[in-house]
Amino acid sequence: MESDECLSNFDNTKHDFALRYIWIVGISSFDLFLTELVSEAGLRLIDKNPDALPVNLQQVQVPMVNVLDIHLLSPPERLLFFRERIFASIQFKSFYRPEKVSEALSYIWSCPPKEKWSRITARMRATGHHGEKTEQDIRDELTLIGDRRDLIAHSADTPPGRDFANPVSREDAARVAEFVCDLAEAIDAETEAQLD
User: Fold this and answer.
1) In the chain, how many domains are there?
2) Is residue 76 part of a domain?
3) Which is higher by pLDDT, 71 or 98?
4) Per the confidence metrics, is the pTM higher than 0.85?
5) Fewer CB near the last or first residue (10 Å), C or N of the chain?
6) Torsion-angle region of residue 78: left (phi > 0), alpha (psi -120 to 50) or beta?
7) Residue 120 lies in a domain
8) Directed axis angle between helix 170-195 and helix 116-125, to 10°?
9) Separation CA 146–CA 119 (nearest Å)
10) With contact defined as beta carbons under 8 Å apart, do 90 and 39 qualify?
11) Per residue in 24-37, pLDDT tens?
12) Is there a domain that residue 61 lies in?
């Protein structure tokens, strides 16, 4: 995993840029994970039961010229076409804020909106790393990681009047990597449960 390489690089060099990169790569990877998950799970839903698609998936836009020619596609080509349309409809959205995670999952999860984070939290607790955290704790932690990522990515992690960036520790970076991984695994496990 790239975050493990960053931690190892820091251990060998003590340069904290390797730690800062964990916020960048963690959130970017998570965002891409959600985009790919929605595309793949959306395709599975279309293939499995097209009459019972979540509302957001039903509203993916398809150019009229493609609608008129869809009958010319073989069944596998049609599925690939649908996957491409799903991906195209979400590829420029960012899914690393709690409300945006909920939006992404609304394309593929059939549970009520208020249940999404409780399901994620239950699965994260099952990892043993987040035992006492509440749903709000999990959402807040994702928000803080996203905020710090934005500061680092936009070179705004240096307070006014200082010549150096806010400190980062190896422990914080490792916690960020673990949290993002656990979050992705929780969402993936719940998605699989809902698709079965």
Assistant:
1) 1
2) no
3) 98
4) yes
5) C
6) alpha
7) yes
8) 120
9) 21
10) yes
11) 999 999 999 999 99
12) no
